[in-house]
Every structure is written in structure tokens, then in C-alpha cells.
Request: fold
Amino acid sequence: MSQPALLRLAKVSKRYGTVQANKEIDLEVHTGSIHAVLGENGAGKSTLMKLIYGVEQPDVGHIYWNGQEVHLARPSDAQALGIGMVFQHFSLFETLSVVQNVSLMIPGKPADLAQKITDLGDQFGLSVDPHAMVHRLSVGERQRVEIIRCLLLNPKLLILDEPTSVLPPQSVRRLFETLRKLQADGMAILFISHKLDEIRELCDTASVLRGGEVTGRVDPREHDARSLAQLMIGREMPNVAHAAPRPPGEERLRLNALSHPRASRFGTTLEGIDLKLRSGEIVGIAGISGNGQQELAALISGETRAQEPGMVEIMGKKVGHLGPMARRKLGFAFVPEERLGRGAVPEMSLADNSLLTAHSRNMLSRGFIRRSVERAFTRECIEAFDVRTPGPDAEAGAMSGGNLQKFILGREIMLNPDVMLVSQPTWGVDIGAATAIRKRLLDMRDQGCAILVISEEMDELFEMCSKLHVLHNGHLSPALDAAETTPQEIGRYMIGAAT
Amino acid sequence: MKFRLIRRDTASRLAMFTAPVLALVFTCVASLVLFAALGKDAGAALYALLLKPFLSWYSFSEVLLKMAPLLLIAQGLAIGFRANVFNIGAEGQFIVGALCASALPVYFPDGDFPLMLPAMIAFGALGGTVYALIAAALRTRFGASEILVTLMMALIAVQILNYLLLGPWKDPRGFNFPQTVMFPDNAMLPILFDGTRTNISLIFSLLASVFAYLMMQHHFRGYQLRTAGLAPRAALYAGFSASRMVWLGLGLGGLAAGIAGASEVAGPLGQLQRSVTSGYGYAAIIVAYVGGLNPLGIIASSFLISVIYIGGDNATVSAGLPVAAVEVFQGLLLFFYLLTFTLIRFRIEFDRKVPA
Reply:
């Protein structure tokens, strides 16, 4: 290779307090290459991207652009060189139109910008109406806006952070086509992901990160997903062997034509949702977040009261008018998607967080807190669910997402629920913890618990559920047998192409 | 140069103790400079402010007298504050408590009412509670901010007081002064130490502190209130009723302020007069926060603030310090306390500039 790499990192390290986020990272990205950065959550992918995009500066090490050493003090420095980044969480103003959002970052007359947006869209398959309001756009369209906004700065390197995590399968296809066109156009692309199949399909080089270090540099097309996973987590992939589900038992949760108006302009109105959940089965609700998932979960948990008692039935009782505590007394438990601030109080110790929902487990005596029972429960939860923490006194806010999720799930499971609602069980959780969490849910099912899982991860739903629904725009699809349906069919429901 | 506040990894228990001490030291240094610039004897001023309250039994007993209402009201308010229920108008509940308690001796000036004193305290407690619960009703029913409602109701309470003192409750033999009759003996709180004005309301306050400590630190109700304050969505998730937290937070604050108001007229004042609007209700907000909203911390902070009040009176008399300078001293103390407390809980991180 006579030509210097477009971007080269040499022995780059970054430390936050006691955490070594990146350690002596070497990385080379060449023009016309789609380069994957692969790693579990917490492996240091995000930190590395922040260093490249100038959000953070390395403690040690050098960054070279076209062979010249550069110092990136802020993102605008990186943009000036020709580095663009599309973040996992979009930064668009929902109340503005596409072209207005773009013009906040790119100088130029709105009419010219609108033309450029249309042109780029035609060229790279990124079609989007420049004058549409952002809050009306689908997730895929919003992502296209983000990409277009980067492309207008004429980047030579485009960084995409977990771009497929929010997309239905059809949109993923479309994104890949766009990326291939950009690659053919001479662009270098850094593609961050933990989805192995996508990387094998799209990328020509992969750098594998583990514990802040590069543990492998491979051509992903020459490896199967299993060996990539092994590089990524440093051991054999844990194999989830599940017993075939037994025939489900009696009905434990039922939604009867559940409708609820949206609470705010950006909420979702739920319409006529019917659902049945029986003992010993896991039913999944697929769909992209923002299609009514939060609203539905809150109506089932009791955080939002239904308009009529009969719309929600738990254990055969009409509970639509009851609050969360009354529903828990009937044997209901709930793991919400937000862990900090909802499933747990960040400023409180784990022991005090046990009290949040497990107070009925003999933790109170005439209303006074029995600290010894509280601590014993917490210790048991920490041990049984492999929560990595110094102990029951550790603050919940100081724990990693995966560990906190194991704690919250453990706490709810230890309540021995008859019905359980789990929302986004493995969001932001590394593979090891995610596998453990799924195994726990399957164990619960085998013990006769009725479990409803709301998730964006389709693989996860297919792995665990016997029946699937799709929530799109406040409507729930009919139940689909997981053994007979396909991701493509689910995808059609996700984008509203099937009803 | 930009900088950010980063929360320290270890929220140290030590901070609770070091912050007030450091704040006191900084305040002394700053006020030494200030008093010297005013051309006053700075040493004498500080001596009067901080040491004199401890040097005679009488001035120390005055500190305890001031401490009683501050401590009681602050404990009540802190319960609400921890649940994010901001009762800013304890002054109003204090006044209404004093009014309700005064009704008995005003209508039975000879003291021929059974259980006069307990009934007065109960009336005061009831009055303060009901007055605060008006704000709770408006908040839970209509979503009206309790901050504004309680504050405005405090102003209304002052006008009710004025009306009664200038009209129906005015002492007929009081030379037209806006005050009621002097209360009969059985309407007065027993004195705790002979020869001082310190009365048993100090015991009420200490009992309230024990109650607040047990409830907030060891009872499930207190846990629910803390959860509602720290993470409202977690409280909703757990199913703790948000409106119950509002009723409880405001009700207990009003209860404490009402008892304090009753104790004021049945204690040092001995009648209802305009000076009952002494600002205890507002000062208690500062006391609650300086005490870190912690029941034990509030005992310490109410003592500290009382010392500064009494010391401030001393300093205006003996060191010839203007009243404004004393107020500046009190302001400085609060300022430095917030500063040190912030710096102990957070560290400052500067954005380094790297040449491009």
C-alpha cells in the first residue's frame, strides 16, 4: 500500500477516572472501504468514535489524516477535515421541516438546500421530502435526513453508530444499498455495530474491540458469525438451549379493545388493542419504539389508568382502574425500559431499590423498614442474578446498564410473579448479560409464568416467543405464530405495509 | 474557558460536616474584610456575632427560644421538600396557626376554658394544616403550582391578621394599638428554664425532629416521599400515589408551622400582635436547606441560624453594626454554604484547548 491510509490511529489511549476506555488502539481506514468496528456494549466503541470525531481528545497517541498528524479539539475540526458522523440517537428538531433542520447546520438558501437534498436523495437512494415536518417522518426517513445532512458537508469519511438498531429489515436493506453507492463513490465508511450478520454482509474489514483493546483485525467475509462472536466476547458463545414450551395454561393477562388517546402531541394514540397471554408462554410485541410501546406498557402496568376497568384484565380481574401497587398484589411484575429513574432510583442504594417494588416481601414491620430483610433480599438477588457490584450499599446510578438490568429483572423475578411484562429486556446490555437475561425469562416461562416481552430486537423475540404481535402506529397486529412467520412478514407489519 | 460540574464518584458523608464548617470560615474572613471596610471594629463585630450568644446563659437561652420555631417549621418543610413539594408559604401557615390559637384567649380572656393551652395548640395545628391543604387541593385538583399558591396565601394571611387586629380582635383597653388582650396565664406555655423566656415549644421541636427522623429515614412513608422527590417516574412505576405525597408534604409542613405559630403567641408574645409576622416561615426554608433536608442536619442548622440571629442583634447594639451588614453576613453564610457544598459534591472540569 503506497498510498497512506485516509485515517490512521496510532497507539491511542483514553481513560475516564479508573476506567481505561481505550488502550493503545491502532486503526487504519482506507478510501473506498466499509470498515466495521465490532464490539460488545462497553468495549470502547463509542469512546473511540468520540476521539475520531473530536468530541473527546486522546490522553496518549496520535491521529493521522492522509498521513498528516492532526489534533481534533472539537467536532467542527473533524468536519473541516471531512469527517461526518450519524449518531445512534438522532439530533433533529421534530417541530421543524427537513430543510429547516438541515439549514441549522449547513449554510445556504432553503430553496437551494431543498434542491440539493432531492439531488443527493436521487443519487444515493435517500429519498425524503425536503419540506416534510420531521415528526411525521418514519425512523428510516429520519436517519436518511441525518445522513444527507452529513453528506452536504462533502465528507471523505462517514461514521455510522449502530445505524441498524432502530430500523425494520426492509429499511436496513435500503440503507445498505445507499452505503454501497457511497462506497463506490470513493467514500470511506466506519460502521459500528454488534450485529454480526450485517457486518459480514456489508463490510470488507473489521476491527474487533474488547475491553478497550483491539483484539482482532479480520476480513469479516471470511469468518462465520460464531468465530466473530468469539473474538468479540473472548470466549465461546453461550448456547441457549431451550426446552420446547409446554402447552400454555390458563389465561392471565387480557387486553379487550384497549384504546387510549395520546397524552401529548408526540405521543401515540392506541386503538382497539386485543391481546391474550396465558400461563407458560412468552408473547412478544415487535415494532419500532415510538409506535405506542411506552403507552401500552404504562397501561398494562397501571402507571396510566385505562378508560374502562374491563380494558385490562389480570388474573381474570378487571384492573383498568387500579394502580400499579394493586396490580402487583394480583401477581403482576414489570421491568420497564428505562432503568435509571423509573426501574430504579439512581441516588439510592441497591438495598433501597429493592424496597421499591419488593416491600411486600416481608420488608416492612408496621410501616418501618426492616433493613436486615431488605439487605438479605438484595444480596440474594445480587448472587442469584450475577449482578456485578460491590454490594447492597452501592448506588444504583453507579452501575452499568447491563448490571442494573440484571438487578431489576432479578428483583421482579424474586417476587414470584404470575404475569410479567418486560419492556426492552436487553437494550444497551452486552451479549453475555443479554443471554443470561433471556435464559432467565425462559426459565420463568417453564415454571408457568406468563410473560409479555416488548422489544425492538427481532432475533430476541424469535428466540423466546411462541406468539408475536407487531405494534405499529398504535395498532396491534393479530397474533402470529412465531414458528410460521418470518422476519420479513414482521417487517411488513412494522412499517404498516400489512395489517 | 468553559467548565463543567462533574458529580464526584463518592458522595461523601464527610461533606455534610465539612461544608458548613468551611462555609463558616469563609464567611468570617469575608465579613472581617467587609466590616473593616465599613470602618467598624471587625474583631468586635465578629465577637458579638458569633461568640457573645454563648457567653451568657441569658443570650444562650434566647438562641434556644429562636431555635424552637425555626427547627419545628424546617422539619415540617423538609419533609415536603424531599418529595419535591415546595411549600414556600410556611409564614402564612404560621400566622394562621397563631390566629387560630389566639381565638380562644381572645373570646375567653379570663381563661375559663377547659384545657386552654392544649386546645390552643390543637387549634393552631389544625389551622396551619388546613391552610396548607388548600394549596394541596388546588395542586392535585387543578395542577396549580404549590409554590405560587402557598406564597400568595402567606400574603393573604397577613391581611387577615391585620383585619382582626384592627377590627374585631383589638384589645378594647389597648390604647388603639393593633393587638389583642394579653393572654391569661393558663394560655401561656410553661417556661423551661427559670429566668429565661425559653418555653416547652423547644421540646415540641425536638419531638418533631425525632418524628421526622424516624419517618424519613426508617419508615416506608418517608421512603415513598424521598422516592417521589428523587425520581418521580420511579415512584409512579412503584405505584406510590403522587397526590398523596402532595397532601402529606403540604399537610405536615402546615401542621408544624401552625404549632409553631400557636407557640409564638402562647410563648414570647403573650398576645396576638403584628410582630408575629417575624419571618420565621421564610427563614425556615433556609434552615431546611442548610441542614441538607436531613432531620439531624436541620437540628444543627436551626441552632446555627439562631446563633446568627441573636448575634446579629448583639452586633447592631454593641458593635454599632448597621442592620444591613448583619443581613449581608447572613447572606454570605448561605452563599458560602451553597458554594462549598457544591464543590464538595461536584468537581470542576475545565475544557482543555488543544491547538488544531
